[in-house]
């Protein structure tokens, strides 16, 4: 589950580990996408409003991801790297990725590369 209070801290804490499960990697990718979407909002809202936004968006994203995995014929629990790459690409389309500012997209790409490098026992590559 995405740690919505501090998604960046969640990512850094998990990336410090040597091995990660596919479920953890899935959650890290969604946390990274959540960060990019929030950075793109460019609001001057209060910390509480930001926390509420993160919580609502994380719930929405998890529901969308579950639907996307189902459409791909992939399991939400323990997906393969290829399935995750496809799901992230579809999530990016859902959230109109091309309309995001360049800085959040570049930050996501850097996090994405770090996260997928932790995928166990697969050699497939690619960025959504």
Any overview of this molecule?
With 128 residues, the chain is mostly helical. α1 runs antiparallel to α2 and α2 (22-41) runs parallel beside α4 (81-94). 65% of the residues lie in helices and 0% in strands. The protein has 5 helices and no strands. The protein has one domain. It has helices spanning 7-15, 22-41, 47-71, 81-94, 102-116.
Please outline what is shown here.
With 128 residues, the protein is mostly helical.
Name the features:
128 residues, mainly alpha, globular
Counting DSSP H or I runs of 4 or more residues, the number of helices is: 5
Low-pLDDT segments:
123-127
- The N- to C-terminal Cα distance equals 21 Å
Give the DSSP E fraction (strand runs of 2 or more residues): under 5%
> Which class of secondary structure composition applies to the elements?
mainly alpha
Largest sheet properties: none
Order of helices and strands: HHHHH
Mean model confidence by pLDDT: 87
- Helical content band: 55-70%
Blueprint (SSEs and pairs):
Blueprint: H1 7-15, H2 22-41, H3 47-71, H4 81-94, H5 102-116
Helix pairs in contact: 1-2, 2-3, 2-4, 2-5, 3-4
């Amino acid at each position: 589950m995405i740690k919505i209070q501090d998604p960046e801290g969640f990512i850094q804490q998990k990336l410090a580990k040597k091995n990660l499960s596919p479920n953890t990697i899935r959650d890290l990718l969604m946390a990274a996408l959540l960060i990019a979407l929030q950075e793109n909002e460019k609001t001057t809202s209060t910390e509480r409003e930001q926390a509420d936004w993160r919580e609502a968006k994380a719930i929405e994203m998890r529901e969308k991801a579950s639907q996307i995995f189902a459409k791909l014929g992939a399991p939400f629990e323990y997906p393969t790297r290829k399935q995750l790459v496809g799901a992230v690409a579809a999530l990016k389309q859902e959230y109109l990725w091309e309309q995001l500012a360049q800085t959040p997209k570049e930050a996501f790409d850097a996090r994405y590369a770090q996260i997928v490098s932790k995928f166990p026992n697969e050699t497939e590559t690619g960025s959504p």
